Amino acid sequence: MQPKTLTAEVVSIGDEMTSGARLDTNAQWLSRRLGELGIEVTFHSTVGDTLQHNIDVFRIAAGRADVVVCTGGLGPTRDDLTRQALAAVVDQPLELRQSALDHIQGLFARRNREMPPRNEIQAMFPVGSLQILNPQGTAPGVDVTVRRGDHSTSRIFALPGVPAEMKRMFDETVAPRILEISGGSRTHIEHEVMKFFGVGESDMEQRLGEMIDRDHVPRVGITVSAATISLRISAIGQSPQECRQQIESTRAEILERVGDLHFGDGEEFEQYHAVEKLLAERGESLVSLELGRSAVLADWFASLGQSSAYRGGFCFANLDELAAVLEVDYAAAMETLRRRAGAQWLVAVDAYPPLESNADSPLPAAEVTLIVIDPTGEVFSTTSRLGGHPSIIYQRIGKAALAWLRHTLAESPAPRPASPTAES
Amino acid sequence: MQPKTLTAEVVSIGDEMTSGARLDTNAQWLSRRLGELGIEVTFHSTVGDTLQHNIDVFRIAAGRADVVVCTGGLGPTRDDLTRQALAAVVDQPLELRQSALDHIQGLFARRNREMPPRNEIQAMFPVGSLQILNPQGTAPGVDVTVRRGDHSTSRIFALPGVPAEMKRMFDETVAPRILEISGGSRTHIEHEVMKFFGVGESDMEQRLGEMIDRDHVPRVGITVSAATISLRISAIGQSPQECRQQIESTRAEILERVGDLHFGDGEEFEQYHAVEKLLAERGESLVSLELGRSAVLADWFASLGQSSAYRGGFCFANLDELAAVLEVDYAAAMETLRRRAGAQWLVAVDAYPPLESNADSPLPAAEVTLIVIDPTGEVFSTTSRLGGHPSIIYQRIGKAALAWLRHTLAESPAPRPASPTAES
C-alpha cells in the first residue's frame, strides 16, 4: 500500500530564537528528516515564550498541516509553556503521569540529587495525549491529536529544544509514529550516507539523473558542505531487511554512476578520515605543509588525535621560511621535512590565495599547486584552478590536495603489510 | 518624543528553506537588527514557493505584526512569487516602474549583457507600493502598506534572499523607514561593536548590570561566539552626532566595568587580529606551536596573509616530534624553533585534549599549559583548566593562549620603534 502524502509544519519555540540570540538549526534538521519520510514540509513557524502566541501558532499549524513537530518550551521553568499551550489547543486539562514522574526522579537519583519540585510539571500531560520517551533528559515529549472542524485531525509532536535529545526522540519515537499515520505497513526507516568529492553539485545531480527525484524509491537526498557532497539514502519498508535491500541496490547503482568520486560513508566522514584509514592500513604516515593563508589540513589531521598516520603539520607564508627553520637549502626543504618527520608521505598546498577582507561573493579561480611526495622521495605535483565562496575556498583547496593524495596513494603499490604478529 | 513600541514578524520564502536544504540565517540577522531598533520580533514564518501559501503567510503576519520583513522570492524565475503575493494581499495590480527597469538594464549593460526578457518582472510593483533600492543586484525590494480591518496598518518590506544584498538594503533603506513609522524625530541609527575575552556570558552580564537591559538607552546587545563576547551598542537619535555621543558615553561606561577584558572593536575583529596589530606596532613577529588535536592558531594567523608579524605555525602530537624535525634536543626545541623562524615571540599550546567522537555535550575541564617565549628567550607559562562544548573547546583554548600572549606582551617593554624613515 502506497503511503498517503502528508504535509508537515515545524514549530520552534523560544524568545532566544525570535530575538535572534540563537540560530535555529532544529527546524532544518527536522525538515530534512520529514522529507526523508516522504512528507512535504510546507511551513516553519517560530514563536517566543508567550502563552497566547503559542496557542495561536499551534492552532494555525494544526489547521494547515497534517503533522506538526515542535521543539522547545518543555523545560521546568515558568517561561516553558508548550505543555500548557497544547492543553489549551485540545481543550483538555493537564494530568500527572506517574511513569513520567518516575523517569524524571530516576534521572535525578542517578545524579545523586533530589528532584526540585518545579520539575514535577514535566510529568504533566494533556488528558488523552501520549508520551514521547526522552532517554537522555528530564523533558518527555508530548504527542497530541487535534480535531479539526472538518472531522480530519492533525498530530502535534512536541520535543525538547536540546538538539541531542530532540534528534534521538524524533528518530526513535516520532518517525515510526508518523509512518503509522501515513498508513500502510511500511513503518521502518533506515538511512545511509555516502560521501563524494570532485565535482560541483549540478554535475553530480546530472550524473545521478532520476535517482534524486523526489518520488524515487528509496529517496536519495543530496547536500553539499564546503565542496563535500553527501548522498543520503532513506529507505522505508515493512522490515529492517527490506530497508537494507533497498539501500544495497541503490548504493550499487550510485557507485556505478559516480563511484569514481566516492571516498567513504557516514555523516561525519571526510577525506582526511579516508586518508588516515588508507595510511593506517598501509602502515605509513603523513606530514602536511601549507603555504599561504590557511592551515586547514593541519587542523583536520590534528583533530584525529594520536594517530600514528599523521606526523605533524607546518604552515608558512612561503618555502623560504621552512628552509630557514630546517637550516637546509630551499630546494631540499620539503623532502627534508618528510624525512626528518619520519613520514613516508608529504602533502603540500602551494599556496592558499589571499582573500579580500569581508568578501562576500565567489572568488575568481586561482592557480594552486598541489604536491605529494611518496616514500621513495618522488614528487607528484598538479596545478588546479580553484575558486568558490570565501567561506569555503580554503577548505575546497585542502580537500583538492587530499583528493590528489588519495589518487597518488591509489597508484602506489602498498608496502608489504606489517605481520600481524610482529609484536610477538 | 518616545518612539511607539512596534512588533515585527520575519518571513523567509523558498522551498530550499522549508525542505531543510538550506539553513536560514537571514531571519536571525534581521531579528537582531530589528531588536536594535527597539522593535520586538514576535514571530518568524518560513514558507515555500507556493503562491497561495505565501498569500496566507503575509495575511497572518500583517494581521499580527506592525512591521513584516520578508526575504526571498524576488528573483526573475517562475517560482519567485513574492511580488504577486504582495499584490494579492493589498488587492492591487502590478505595474511597471520605469526607474526600476532602468536600474536593472543598467546592471546588465555594465556586465556587457542584454537583459533577458524575464527580468522585466523585477521592475513590476503593486500599485501604491514603494521601491527599495538594491545597489548590488537586479532585485529591487518592495515596501507595501496593508490596511487591516480595524483601520490600523501593517507595513511589509520585501527584500531579496541574497544575504549581502538584503543586509545592505535593510540598513540603508528599511531601518530608516521603520524609525519613521515608530514615530518621533529619532531617525538615525549607529552601531558599534566591542570585543571581549576572558569570562563566561553570565559573569559578563552580571558585571554589566542594567547596561544590557532591554530599555537601556542606547541599547547594548550581548552575543557570544566560541567564547568571544561581543557587545553591540545601537544608538538611535535625531542626528549622527547625537548617536555618536550616546555611543561614546556608553563605551566609556562599558570600559570602566569590563575594560580589563576588552581587546578590540568591530564585528569581525578577533584576538589574533589584536595580537598581529600589537606585534606590527612593536616591529616584532610570532611563531606558533600547537601540540595535540588542533591547529586553530596556525589557521587563524595564516588567514591574515602576508603579515610580517607571523612567521609560521607548527602542529605536532608532541614535542619529541618537533625536536626530531629540528634535529635538536627535546629541551631546546621550542627556543630553537623561535630563533630559526626569525621570530621574537613564540606562543604554544600543550596540549589540546582529545574529544570523544560525536560528543555533543560540554567536556569536563582539562588542564592545558599555555606557553609564551619572549624576545630574550624567557619562558612564561601558565596552566588553565578549560572546558566547554566540543564544537568550541579548541577555539576557546587557542583564544586563552592568545590572551596569555597579550598579557605577556603588555608586561614586556616595547622595543625602540623602528625609525619611520629607516628605508631612506
Automatic annotation (TrEMBL), chains A, B:
Please state every residue range assigned to the domain named MoaB/Mog: 9-181
Q: Which CDD domains match?
A: cinA
Q: Per its UniProt record, what SUPFAM superfamilies does this chain match?
A: Molybdenum cofactor biosynthesis proteins
Sequence similarity: Belongs to the CinA family.
InterPro entries, alphabetically? CinA, CinA_KH, Competence-induced_CinA, MoaB/Mog-like_dom_sf, MoaB/Mog_dom
SMART domains hit by this protein: MoCF_biosynth (SM00852)
Q: Which organism is it from?
A: Stieleria maiorica
Question: Could you identify this protein by its name?
Answer: CinA-like protein
The UniProt entry, under Pfam families, shows: CinA_KH, MoCF_biosynth
Its gene name is cinA
Taxonomic path: Bacteria, Pseudomonadati, Planctomycetota, Planctomycetia, Pirellulales
